[in-house]
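#struct-help
A.M.: can someone run this one for me? Single chain, 324 residues.
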Amino acid sequence: MSFSNDIKNELLRLPVNDDSEKVALLAGLARMDGRILIGTQRKISLQLNSENAAVARLAFSWLKELFHVEADVTIQRMNRLKKNVLYVVNVPSQTRMPVLLNSLGMVDRDGLLFRPEIAEDLISSDSLRRAYLRGIFLGGGSMTDPLRSYHLEIVTQSEEFAGQLIDLIKNYNIYPRMSTRKENVIVYLKESEQISDFLALLGAFDALMALENTRIQKNVRNQVNRLVNCETANLNKSIDAAQRQIQSIHLIKETVGLQSLTDSLRQAAEARLNHPEESLKDLGQLLDPPVGKSGMNHRMRRLEEIAEQIQADAADTPISENKG
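D.P.: on it. Structure tokens below:
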């Protein structure tokens, strides 16, 4: 089951005891998944389509409970390869249809179908706004599994409605963005904190906890990776430094000899040649008397300077010509 379906199933389990909240949720769902059909003799019917069986059951149950309308549910197979199933709630033309459409905010006072704005009476209080947004998400929302990425979106067909939806959500200090995809207008969130706030707004606290747990796991994993990368980088730097030191000591040994060095430098050079893998700190502890890391670092730098001077002197020495 997808993360989106987990959220939707959680929202469907939330208790709703107030009829006005049920109407607001149904209105949001109808706005996203509803279709007004006009048949012969201008008979108007309503159709709600959902790929989630539980969403269809809730719509069917509340339509009958709240509006006392006749309705039925049919199942359509959308794609034989993917085996997607569409659940269709049909509300045929009947005397209570105008009341239903007006209550769901799908017509205006003049009877014009699919009014572009959100009806004020559907979002006149905080509880109604939250219920309406739950219906919106149930109808057109989805969320990527946070293990993959942080992305929550709502797919709409109207830029005007998408703008109103964004304004509605902004009341809660959540700031979605808008984009287009083919013929759809997408309202989306990509910041994990904003997604968490939106899930809390909907009441999807189980999904919120799952998201937060994933965020913690990702943060810990990222911190571990950063530490490992840092340790690896430091190790590589230490290995590179040790190789330079060994090359410098070999050059001194093969040219002027280690006996030309002071006792402290000769002791440090021999320790490095005998223990090429040791860190400066550990290497210093092998000397007699022991030397700290900074002391060993100073001696190694001095050995490299001597090797550089030997190379510079060799470069300045002219090559004698053989006139024999």
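A.M.: thanks! Strands lie at 34-38, 44-50, 72-79, 84-91, 141-143, 152-156, 177-181, 184-189.
D.P.: also worth noting: The chain has eleven helices and eight strands.
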